[in-house]
Amino acid sequence: MRERGDVAVLHEPFMYHHYLTTSDRLFPDFTPEPDHPATYADIRAMIRETAKAGPVFFKDMAYYVVDALPRDESFAGEITHAFLLRDPAEAALSYARRDPEFTRTELGHEAQHWLYHALVKLGHRPLVLTADQLRNDTEGTLRRYWAHIGLEYADHAFSWDDKVPDGWESVQGWHSEVLQSGEIRKSKGTNASAQLAKLGAPYSEHAAHHAPFYAEMRDIAEAQAHQK
Known about the structure:
Layout: E1 8-11, H1 14-22, H2 40-51, E2 56-59, H3 62-65, H4 73-76, E3 82-85, H5 88-98, H6 104-107, H7 109-121, E4 127-130, H8 131-136, H9 138-149, H10 176-181, H11 192-199, H12 203-225
Parallel strand pairs: 1-2, 3-4
């Protein structure tokens, strides 16, 4: 989204709300910016202030706001919602490499499922996408996403350099591979489930817990992809 050049981008602003005010742990390589707002209300105010100048894109994990956002109908109504899903076995493998102490909550699929249905009950129609859709049909998937949020197609927005973007400084250790890749790449076709089984508990148990939530959301994503 940064490569488009026509939207302000905030990187996981509600991460500060979750990890600095509601969680008893910090994940590795998280170095909070001292002047970043940390409460839900202050982060919301920052987003609204930024939006006065034009469209704002921000990506967050659903568990950061799964309790607060459905109760904040006014702010939820100011957002065009979309969900991006990743296979829980693959996600658990990635987490285990970077944060071996990650929690079941942080894998995230259950919160995505809950937040999606909470937003639907409020009258929203969130777009649901999968990582496989994004990797295997990058252009088509982003075209659908941009249309969903009311942006024109941008053919220049599919590659990037390795410069650390503004807002990533606090978590740049988590994104080195993304920066070096320069583009969204197709899946390598590795067997994540088999690799996760070798690691065993608690990682395989975390993935198994989230699998049903992911499966339902994946079905929604596939159904939306085939809608005309």
